[in-house]
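Researcher: Next entry in the queue.
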Amino acid sequence: MTVKQAHGSGDSSPPIAGDISTFPTDAELARTLVASTGSATLSTLTPKGFPYGSIVSYIHDDLGNPIILISDMAEHTINARKNEKASMLISEPAGDGDPLGKARLTLVGSLHLLDNPKNEREDYLEKHQHASFYVDYEDFNFWKLVVKECRYVGGFGHMSWVENHAYQSAEIDPFFLNAQEIIDHMNEDHRDANLLYVKNLANLQDSSEATMLGIDRYGVTLRASTSKGPRMARIGFPTPLKSQEEARPAVIELLELARSSSNQHPKTTMPT
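Model: Structure for this entry, 272 residues:
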């Protein structure tokens, strides 16, 4: 007989090493997730009150409100005309591994038909070029989901309700377009630098290897292999970054800090 544990019971994961105060806020993570993808699951309410899910493409305005292009003949549009309440689920691409370990965001609000969407039309076609085939059909219109509530889930055990004013005012991370490119480069060509980061800047001296998992304006997140198992590490940049061009100098500065904090100076390659 299998005995189930209550959620949160038993041994907990080891604490994150390094400086956890440098993580972005959930509001920032939510806005960045919205900006980094362009498709979502829209849920509207049927006349009988059941949620109806459908896939939509979107852009967003300056406050993070998604804007969609949908046909009057679609079920979700018929539903929205009768009941404006809706939600949208936006998720990080699953890729490899457990999809429940990926970030996702549920935006709850009301759908409103846009009267004169000239600027929205141009922005939408820039992001979704395939829509040029049907954007001018008479039955297609732009709608905006005006966000009232946000639920952010960053993975197992990481979740929060994000205040709407915090969501609206949060800044999109400048690395949202090329973060994965930087991560792949560091893991393929500079694993020795990753190892030095976790050893000397996160005090995980018994690490045998380290993999970079994320980079944002505030710092980098890594996973280290230690004698006691895997450990997460967070290392902040000396000052927040403002543009993608600052990434290379910043990771080099971290490497110099890691070298200067060690009595020994193992040979490591400078990130290029």
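Model: The helical segments are 26-36, 75-82, 118-127, 164-169, 179-189, 191-201, 247-260.
Researcher: Noted, moving on.
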